[in-house]
Design goal:
Number of strands: 4
Distance between the termini: 29 Å
Shape: elongated
Radius of gyration: 29 Å
Number of helices: 6
Strand order of the largest sheet: 2-1-3-4
Low-confidence stretches: none
Mean pLDDT: 82
Structural class: alpha/beta
């Protein structure tokens, strides 16, 4: 093989080694961010589970319970809260969430309005001219309950006060395992499954059970949004970590193959040079 081709192979090996350094660095960063996000989600869950259990208890105890959040309203507009990432290079994380959102829109029918969370979701729904109620970028890593409450208040105003939406669905990515992240949807409003078996609780609610329930709903919705954003961010980091690990493995395999080709070409060139030297010496004799 010509020395020029050998130089090209060596240059390509160096280029792949540089890329592998980047993918390994991104893998380490994603691993660190993933652990923090997972801890954040696990810490918040007990409080929101307690809120949900209290709401179920209230709905179960009152036979005449008829909250607006349970019975729904007359609007045929469905609000889709779609959570994706702010960056790419995360495997199918972003595309899977958006595909599920589009699938749910087709299933539910009627009119739709979107709250995209994450730069990739905002870019997609803006580009395809969907009606956007409010959009949020770069909040996943530093998500706070106060930001979740702001989003919850916007939803409550649209549903209860203005009655411009009749249903709310949440699309996010659930963390199943380090290698499995699954896009899921949750029905947020109306609260179709909030009532359970009667618990015969002796708890007394002031000023009334219904008033407490109405006060808890915004916090419950904020809890769902907060948990979904944090869980999605953890899933994004896990997905990116897996993608970067696979990319590093592929780069290492490419380097091994190119090194083998380079060594064979180098051996062939050395053999050819020796043959030419021997041939020249024999010609002089």
């Amino acid at each position: 093989m010509a020395s020029g081709n050998m130089k090209d192979i060596k240059r390509r090996i160096k280029s792949i080694e540089s890329t592998m350094q980047i993918t390994k660095a991104m893998q380490l960063v994603s691993s660190s961010k993933f652990r923090k996000a997972k801890e954040k989600a696990d810490t918040a869950m007990p409080f929101f589970n307690a809120v949900y259990e209290t709401m179920c208890e209230i709905a179960s105890e009152d036979r005449f319970f008829n909250s607006a959040y349970v019975r729904g309203n007359d609007s045929d507009v469905t609000l889709m809260i779609v959570i994706a990432g702010d960056r790419g290079l995360a495997g199918g994380y972003n595309s899977n969430a958006i595909k599920l959102a589009l699938s749910r829109m087709e299933e539910t029918g009627g009119n739709h309005v979107v709250i995209p969370i994450g730069k990739k979701a905002v870019e997609f729904f803006s580009k395809h001219n969907y009606k956007i109620l409010r959009s949020y970028e770069n909040i996943g890593e530093n998500m706070s309950i106060y930001k979740a409450m702001d989003i919850s208040e916007i939803i409550i105003d649209s549903y209860r006060k203005h009655k411009s939406i009749g249903r709310v669905e949440l699309i996010f990515t659930d963390y199943v395992s380090p290698i499995v992240q699954e896009a899921r949807h949750i029905s947020v409003i109306p609260l179709e499954r909030i009532a359970g078996e009667p618990s015969h609780s002796v708890t007394r609610y002031e000023p009334s059970a219904g008033a407490v329930f109405e006060e808890l709903v915004p916090k419950y919705i904020a809890g769902l949004i907060y948990g979904a954003v944090v869980c999605s961010f953890a899933s994004e980091q896990a997905s990116r970590r897996n993608a970067m690990e696979n990319a590093s493995d592929n780069a290492e395999e490419m380097i091994d193959n190119l090194s083998l080709i380079y060594n064979r070409a180098r051996q062939s060139a050395i053999t050819q040079e020796i043959t030419e030297i021997i041939g020249g010496a024999e010609a002089q004799e």
